[in-house]
Amino acid sequence: MSTPTRNTTVLGMPTVPGRGNLNELHPFPEVAEHELGNVQMRTNLRKATGTIRGKRLQRVAEMPDWEDLRDTAEATKNDVIDRLPELLLQFEEAFTAAGGHVHWARDADEANAIVTGLIEENAPVNERGRRDVIKVKSMATQEIGLNEALEPAGIDAYETDLAELIVQLGGDKPSHILVPAIHRNREEIRQIFLNGMDDVDPDLDSEPEHLAEASRRHLRRKFLETKVAVSGANFGIAETGALSVVESEGNGRMCVTLPETLITVMGIEKLLPTFQDLEVFMELLPRSSTGERMNPYTSFWTGVTPGDGPQNVHVVLLDNGRTRALADQHGRDALRCIRCSACMNVCPVYERAGGHAYGSVYPGPIGAILTPLLTGVDESANGSLPYASSLCGACFDACPVKINIPEMLTRLRNEDQEVNHNTRLPHTQLDAALDGAKWMMSDGRRMGLVEKGLPIANRLSPKAGLWGLPGVAGKWTSSRDVPQPPKQSFRSWFKDREKNGEKGKNND
User: Fold this and answer.
1) Cα separations in angstroms, 108 against 100, 142, 147
2) What residues contact 275, with CB distance under 8 A and at least 6 apart?
3) Is 170 helix (H, G, I), strand (E, B) or coil?
4) Rounded distance, CA 244 to CA 226, Å?
5) What's the distance, CA 242 to chain centroid?
6) How far is CA 273 from the centre of its chain?
7) Which of 5, 226, 442, 469 pairs as cysteine with 473 (C-beta 3.0–4.6 A)?
8) Closest C-alpha to 96, from 334, 275, 303, 405
9) How far is residue 325's CA from residue 369's CA, in Å, rounded to a whole number?
10) What percent of the chain shows pLDDT beyond 90?
11) Over the stretch 363-412, which tens digit does the pLDDT of each residue have?
12) What does 338-366 look like in DSSP terms, one character per residue?
C-alpha cells in the first residue's frame, strides 16, 4: 500500500483539512432548542454529571498540591506546543527504532485511507465476504469518521468499549467525551441490547452487572478471533516512542495485546516529552474524568517485542486542523486538552442541551472552542458554537491543564462577528441599545429618572417574567424568560428607608 508522505504542515506547510465529524449542518441554537424538549435525556444527564461532579470534588479535596499539579501540567503541555515539530520527529525516530511504522495524515480523508489500506492488507476476508476489526474507544477515530469510512470498503468495525458499543448498537452518536452513552439510562440500554445483539438472553434485565456481562459475552469471540485492532492514544512519549491507552473496563488491554496488527490513530498534540511527565497526568486525569484515584487499566506499548503482543504495529499521526489551531496565538492553548471531560460535567449549558446539540464529536465547553479552532468560525454552523456557553467560568476552574475556556470563547465570538457578521456595518439594534444604556448609566440623575418607571413596568409584566420581546431582545427571550422587574430600585428603597427613620437599624 502506498501511504502519503510525512505531513509537513506542522513544519510550516499549510493544508486545507478534510474534517470528518467536526462539521455540523445545523447551528447549535437550532438543535439545542429541539434537544431541550427531551426530558428523559435531560434527566439522565443531570443524574450522571451530578454523580461524577460529586466524586471528582471528593478526590480533588484529598490532594493538597492539586493546584501545583495543574500548574505543572499546564507548563508541560505548553512546552509540548512550543516544541511540537521537534518532539514529533523525536517520537517518530523512537517508535520506528522499536519496530513500529509511522504514518502522517494531513486530514481525516488521508487518515481514513491509511487505516483502510492497513486493514485490507492484514485482516482476512470472513465468510460474509467482509473484514473485521476491533476498536478501543478513540476520540480521534470518531473525529475522522473512521467507522463510516470503513463500512463501504467492506470492513466492519466493532466497538469494544461498553458505552461506545451502546451507541453503535443503537445507531446513535456519542454525546460525551468520556461517557459516550451518558444520555441513555439502564432501561434504554437493555432495549438496545435486546434489539442489537443476536446472542443476548431474552430475559435480560437492567441491572448494570447483567448488562456488562451481556456485552462481554457478545464481544469475547471478537477479541479472540479478530486479527486487527484500531486504538486511540491518551499519551505518546517522545523520548521512548511509547503509546498509552487509559480505560476502565479492560477492553483496551485486550485490543492492544491480542490481535496480530495494531493501528493507533493519535492527534499530534497528545505527546509528552518524557516518560516521567506521565506522573503528573496520571494524578490529574482519573480524578478529573471519573473521580477515581487511579485508572483501572493503563496500557503501554513501544513498537514490537518478539513473541509478545502484536507483531505489526502502526501509528497514524493526525493533524486535521491542529496546525491551524497551533498557528493561533491564543487558540493554541486548547491543544493542552487531555480529553478528561471535566468541563462538560460542570457546564450548565451542556447539562441541559446535551452533547448532540454541539454537532461535532467534541461537545461541551471544550468542543465549543476546539471545533471552531480546528475548522474555522467561517463555517456557518460551527460559528455558533462559541455562543453555547453562559461564560460562568466553571469549566476553567475544573480544567486540570488550566485552559481558560471562557476567555477563548469570547475571542472566538469576536472572530465570528468580524468574519460572518461584519460588525463594521451601520448601527444595529444591539448597538443602539448599548449606546442608550451607556448614556443612561453614565449619569446618576438620568439613572434615577429611568428607575422611576420600574413600578409601572412591574405592574405591566407577568409574574413569570418577560418573554417574546421584539427585535434583538427576542434572541434572548426565545430561550429564556427575563425576570419580572422589581417594584422599586435600590436607591428608591434606600430613600424610603431613611425617610421612615430606619437608618442604622439592622433589618437582617
Assistant:
1) 22, 10, 12
2) 237, 239, 240, 242
3) coil
4) 21
5) 24
6) 24
7) 469
8) 303
9) 10
10) 64
11) 999 999 999 998 887 656 778 899 899 999 999 999 999 999 999 999 99
12) ----HHHHT-HHHHHH-GGGG-SSS-HHH
Quick check: 170 and 184 in contact, CB under 8 A?
yes
Provide the pLDDT confidence category of residue 472 given band limits of 50, 70 and 90.
Answer: low
β 155-159/228-231 pair status: unpaired
Residue 480: left if φ>0, alpha if ψ -120 to 50, beta else—which one? beta
53-90 as b/e: b if 16+ CB within 10 A: beebeebbeeeeebeebbebbbebbbebbeebbebbeb
Cell (9 digits) for 204: 435480560
Give the Cα separation of 300 and 236 in Å (integer). Answer: 9
Q: Identify residue 462 by its one-letter amino acid code.
A: P
Helices and strands counted in the chain (H then E): 23, 10
Question: 277-282 — which CB contacts under 8 Å span 24+ positions?
Answer: 277/76, 277/237, 278/235, 278/237, 278/244, 280/69, 280/72, 280/73, 280/76, 281/73, 281/76, 281/235, 281/338
In the numeric block, which cell numbers belong to residue 254? 485486550
Report residue 426 as a C-alpha cell: 451601520
Query: Which run of H or E residues covers position 261?
Result: strand 261-267
Backbone angles phi, psi at 167, to 5 degrees: -60, -45
pLDDT at residue 457, as a whole number: 73
pLDDT band for position 234 (cuts 50, 70, 90)? very high
Selection from 352, 388, 351, 393 nearest residue 370 by Cα: 388
Please give the Cα distance from 83 to 89 (Å, whole number): 10
The confidence band for 464, taking pLDDT boundaries of 50, 70 and 90, is: low
Q: Are 472 and 432 in contact (CB under 8 A)?
A: no
Sign for the pseudo-dihedral over CA of 322, 333, 95, 255: negative
Angle (deg, nearest 10), helices 84-97 and 66-82: 90
pTM confidence score: 0.84
> Strands, DSSP E only, in 356-443?
none
9-20+84-320, CATH topology level: Rossmann fold (3.40.50)
DSSP H or E stretch at residue 265: strand 261-267
User: For residue range 96-115, what is the model confidence (pLDDT) as tens digits?
Assistant: 999 999 999 999 999 999 99
Structural domain spans, the chain: 9-20+84-320, 429-499
* Spatial separation of the C-alpha atoms in residues 41 and 353, rounded to whole Å: 9
The SS3 of residue 316 is strand
Task: Provide the pLDDT confidence category of residue 465 given band limits of 50, 70 and 90.
Answer: low
- The answer to whether residue 489 scores a pLDDT higher than 80 is yes
